[in-house]
Amino acid sequence: MFRASPNVLGWANLNWIFKAGSQINIVGMGKIRIAIVDDHSVVREGLRIILKSDSRFSVDGCFFTGDALLDFLTENQVDLVILDLDIPGGGDFAILKEIKQTYPDCKVIVYTMHSGISFFLGAKNLGANSYVVKTEPVTFMPTVIMYAMKGEFYASTELEVFMETSKPKILLTPVELEIVTCISKGMLYKEIAAKISRSEKTIEYYAKKIRKKLNVESNSELLVKVNR
Q: Do 36 and 59 meet the contact criterion of CB atoms below 8 Å apart?
Protein backbone atom coordinates (compact mmCIF):
# COMPACT_ATOMS: atom_id res chain seq x y z
CA MET A 1 0.00 0.00 0.00
CA PHE A 2 1.28 3.45 -0.89
CA ARG A 3 1.15 6.07 1.86
CA ALA A 4 1.15 9.69 0.71
CA SER A 5 3.36 12.32 2.29
CA PRO A 6 1.61 14.30 5.03
CA ASN A 7 2.33 17.47 3.06
CA VAL A 8 -0.48 16.64 0.62
CA LEU A 9 -3.09 15.35 3.04
CA GLY A 10 -4.49 18.66 4.31
CA TRP A 11 -4.31 19.99 7.85
CA ALA A 12 -7.17 17.91 9.26
CA ASN A 13 -5.67 14.66 7.98
CA LEU A 14 -2.16 15.80 8.90
CA ASN A 15 -3.19 16.33 12.53
CA TRP A 16 -4.88 12.93 12.56
CA ILE A 17 -1.83 11.18 11.17
CA PHE A 18 0.53 12.72 13.69
CA LYS A 19 -1.90 11.79 16.48
CA ALA A 20 -2.32 8.26 15.14
CA GLY A 21 1.41 7.98 14.50
CA SER A 22 2.08 8.45 18.21
CA GLN A 23 -0.31 5.61 19.03
CA ILE A 24 0.19 3.04 16.24
CA ASN A 25 1.73 -0.13 17.58
CA ILE A 26 1.94 -3.72 16.48
CA VAL A 27 0.32 -6.36 18.64
CA GLY A 28 2.80 -8.82 20.11
CA MET A 29 5.88 -6.78 19.18
CA GLY A 30 8.33 -5.48 21.75
CA LYS A 31 10.54 -2.51 21.07
CA ILE A 32 11.44 -2.08 17.42
CA ARG A 33 15.20 -2.43 17.09
CA ILE A 34 16.66 0.20 14.76
CA ALA A 35 20.03 0.95 13.19
CA ILE A 36 20.84 4.34 11.66
CA VAL A 37 23.39 4.75 8.86
CA ASP A 38 24.35 8.27 7.74
CA ASP A 39 27.71 9.90 7.21
CA HIS A 40 26.54 13.21 8.74
CA SER A 41 26.80 13.20 12.52
CA VAL A 42 24.13 15.90 12.89
CA VAL A 43 21.63 13.75 10.96
CA ARG A 44 22.50 10.60 12.92
CA GLU A 45 22.19 12.38 16.24
CA GLY A 46 18.94 14.11 15.28
CA LEU A 47 17.35 10.79 14.33
CA ARG A 48 18.72 9.09 17.44
CA ILE A 49 17.27 11.75 19.75
CA ILE A 50 13.84 11.63 18.09
CA LEU A 51 13.65 7.83 18.21
CA LYS A 52 15.14 7.37 21.69
CA SER A 53 12.39 9.61 23.07
CA ASP A 54 9.75 7.16 21.78
CA SER A 55 9.15 4.10 23.98
CA ARG A 56 8.34 1.94 20.94
CA PHE A 57 11.89 2.10 19.61
CA SER A 58 15.35 0.93 20.60
CA VAL A 59 18.22 2.54 18.69
CA ASP A 60 20.76 -0.26 18.75
CA GLY A 61 23.42 1.36 16.59
CA CYS A 62 24.43 4.49 14.67
CA PHE A 63 26.97 4.12 11.88
CA PHE A 64 29.04 6.31 9.58
CA THR A 65 29.65 3.68 6.87
CA GLY A 66 27.81 0.78 5.32
CA ASP A 67 30.63 -1.61 6.19
CA ALA A 68 30.30 -0.70 9.86
CA LEU A 69 26.60 -1.51 9.71
CA LEU A 70 27.20 -4.85 7.96
CA ASP A 71 29.83 -5.81 10.54
CA PHE A 72 27.30 -5.00 13.28
CA LEU A 73 24.56 -7.06 11.63
CA THR A 74 26.71 -10.21 11.56
CA GLU A 75 26.31 -10.45 15.35
CA ASN A 76 23.24 -8.30 16.06
CA GLN A 77 19.67 -8.41 14.79
CA VAL A 78 17.61 -5.31 14.07
CA ASP A 79 14.08 -4.91 12.75
CA LEU A 80 14.70 -1.81 10.66
CA VAL A 81 17.53 0.20 9.15
CA ILE A 82 17.34 3.90 8.30
CA LEU A 83 19.77 4.15 5.39
CA ASP A 84 21.34 7.11 3.61
CA LEU A 85 22.31 6.27 0.02
CA ASP A 86 25.42 8.47 0.00
CA ILE A 87 27.39 6.79 2.77
CA PRO A 88 30.94 5.55 2.11
CA GLY A 89 30.72 2.14 0.45
CA GLY A 90 27.07 2.64 -0.46
CA GLY A 91 27.40 3.35 -4.18
CA ASP A 92 25.08 1.61 -6.63
CA PHE A 93 22.74 0.67 -3.74
CA ALA A 94 25.39 -1.75 -2.46
CA ILE A 95 24.34 -1.66 1.21
CA LEU A 96 20.63 -1.86 0.43
CA LYS A 97 21.27 -4.89 -1.79
CA GLU A 98 23.33 -6.61 0.90
CA ILE A 99 20.76 -6.01 3.63
CA LYS A 100 17.88 -7.29 1.52
CA GLN A 101 19.80 -10.34 0.29
CA THR A 102 21.27 -11.35 3.65
CA TYR A 103 18.55 -10.14 6.04
CA PRO A 104 15.31 -10.27 4.01
CA ASP A 105 13.09 -9.71 7.06
CA CYS A 106 14.82 -6.45 7.95
CA LYS A 107 12.89 -3.36 6.88
CA VAL A 108 14.83 -0.53 5.22
CA ILE A 109 13.78 3.11 5.10
CA VAL A 110 15.88 5.01 2.57
CA TYR A 111 16.56 8.51 3.95
CA THR A 112 18.26 10.59 1.29
CA MET A 113 18.68 13.92 -0.48
CA HIS A 114 17.89 12.31 -3.85
CA SER A 115 14.39 12.72 -5.29
CA GLY A 116 15.15 11.64 -8.87
CA ILE A 117 13.35 8.71 -10.47
CA SER A 118 16.48 6.61 -10.98
CA PHE A 119 17.28 6.67 -7.26
CA PHE A 120 13.68 6.16 -6.19
CA LEU A 121 12.84 3.29 -8.52
CA GLY A 122 16.27 1.74 -8.04
CA ALA A 123 15.75 1.61 -4.28
CA LYS A 124 12.12 0.51 -4.52
CA ASN A 125 12.90 -2.27 -6.98
CA LEU A 126 15.57 -3.58 -4.60
CA GLY A 127 13.03 -3.85 -1.80
CA ALA A 128 13.23 -0.58 0.14
CA ASN A 129 10.21 -0.36 2.44
CA SER A 130 9.90 3.43 2.39
CA TYR A 131 11.67 6.31 0.67
CA VAL A 132 12.01 9.58 2.58
CA VAL A 133 13.63 12.68 1.12
CA LYS A 134 15.52 14.78 3.67
CA THR A 135 13.29 17.78 3.02
CA GLU A 136 10.72 15.97 5.19
CA PRO A 137 10.64 16.99 8.87
CA VAL A 138 12.58 14.42 10.89
CA THR A 139 9.83 14.45 13.51
CA PHE A 140 7.66 12.43 11.11
CA MET A 141 10.11 9.50 11.08
CA PRO A 142 8.40 7.55 13.92
CA THR A 143 5.20 7.43 11.87
CA VAL A 144 7.10 6.35 8.74
CA ILE A 145 8.71 3.56 10.77
CA MET A 146 5.35 2.28 11.93
CA TYR A 147 3.97 2.34 8.38
CA ALA A 148 7.00 0.35 7.19
CA MET A 149 6.61 -2.19 9.99
CA LYS A 150 2.97 -2.70 8.97
CA GLY A 151 3.96 -3.25 5.35
CA GLU A 152 2.81 0.14 4.04
CA PHE A 153 5.16 1.91 1.62
CA TYR A 154 5.68 5.60 2.36
CA ALA A 155 7.12 8.04 -0.19
CA SER A 156 7.82 11.75 0.13
CA THR A 157 5.93 14.47 -1.73
CA GLU A 158 8.63 14.91 -4.38
CA LEU A 159 8.01 11.35 -5.53
CA GLU A 160 4.28 11.60 -6.13
CA VAL A 161 4.92 12.27 -9.81
CA PHE A 162 6.11 8.65 -10.00
CA MET A 163 3.23 7.11 -8.05
CA GLU A 164 -0.52 7.17 -7.53
CA THR A 165 -2.05 7.43 -4.08
CA SER A 166 -3.51 3.94 -4.34
CA LYS A 167 -0.74 1.92 -6.00
CA PRO A 168 2.69 2.36 -7.56
CA LYS A 169 2.70 4.01 -10.95
CA ILE A 170 5.92 3.22 -12.76
CA LEU A 171 6.49 5.76 -15.48
CA LEU A 172 9.46 3.92 -16.92
CA THR A 173 9.66 0.25 -17.86
CA PRO A 174 12.61 -1.82 -16.55
CA VAL A 175 14.33 -1.50 -19.94
CA GLU A 176 13.81 2.27 -19.98
CA LEU A 177 15.10 2.56 -16.43
CA GLU A 178 18.21 0.57 -17.38
CA ILE A 179 18.81 2.92 -20.33
CA VAL A 180 18.44 5.98 -18.09
CA THR A 181 20.94 4.47 -15.67
CA CYS A 182 23.41 3.85 -18.48
CA ILE A 183 22.97 7.38 -19.84
CA SER A 184 23.60 8.77 -16.36
CA LYS A 185 26.92 6.87 -16.35
CA GLY A 186 27.96 8.61 -19.58
CA MET A 187 27.58 5.57 -21.82
CA LEU A 188 27.11 6.06 -25.57
CA TYR A 189 24.08 4.61 -27.35
CA LYS A 190 26.21 1.94 -29.01
CA GLU A 191 27.62 0.92 -25.61
CA ILE A 192 24.14 0.72 -24.14
CA ALA A 193 22.97 -1.31 -27.13
CA ALA A 194 25.75 -3.84 -26.57
CA LYS A 195 25.04 -4.01 -22.84
CA ILE A 196 21.31 -4.76 -23.12
CA SER A 197 21.40 -6.62 -26.46
CA ARG A 198 19.47 -4.09 -28.54
CA SER A 199 20.36 -2.18 -31.71
CA GLU A 200 21.69 1.36 -31.52
CA LYS A 201 18.58 2.61 -33.35
CA THR A 202 16.39 0.93 -30.74
CA ILE A 203 18.28 2.70 -27.98
CA GLU A 204 17.79 6.02 -29.80
CA TYR A 205 14.06 5.27 -29.99
CA TYR A 206 13.87 4.41 -26.31
CA ALA A 207 15.77 7.58 -25.36
CA LYS A 208 13.34 9.70 -27.36
CA LYS A 209 10.40 7.92 -25.73
CA ILE A 210 11.87 8.46 -22.25
CA ARG A 211 12.42 12.18 -22.90
CA LYS A 212 8.81 12.49 -24.03
CA LYS A 213 7.53 10.67 -20.93
CA LEU A 214 9.51 12.93 -18.62
CA ASN A 215 8.76 16.07 -20.63
CA VAL A 216 12.37 17.05 -21.38
CA GLU A 217 14.03 18.04 -24.65
CA SER A 218 17.52 16.60 -24.30
CA ASN A 219 19.50 13.95 -22.46
CA SER A 220 21.15 16.74 -20.46
CA GLU A 221 17.74 17.84 -19.20
CA LEU A 222 16.87 14.19 -18.59
CA LEU A 223 19.90 13.73 -16.35
CA VAL A 224 19.09 16.86 -14.38
CA LYS A 225 15.56 15.55 -13.77
CA VAL A 226 16.41 11.97 -12.79
CA ASN A 227 19.46 12.78 -10.65
CA ARG A 228 18.25 15.83 -8.74
A: yes
56 lies in the same domain as 150: yes
**What's 201's domain CATH number?**
1.10.10.10
Count of all residues that appear for the chain in the document: 228
Judge if pTM exceeds 0.90.
Answer: no
Q: Give me the pLDDT at residue 84, please.
A: 94
Are 160 and 153 in contact by the 8 Å Cβ rule? The answer is no
- Identify whether residues 14 and 123 lie together within a single domain: yes
Q: What is the pLDDT of residues 14-27, one digit of tens each?
A: 333 333 343 444 44
Contact 176/203 with Cβ under 8 angstroms?
Answer: no
Backbone angles phi, psi at 54, to 5 degrees: -110, 120
**How many separate domains does the chain show?**
2
Structural domain harbouring 194: 174-226
Half-sphere exposure of 61 (CA within 13 A, CB side): 21
31 DSSP assignment = P
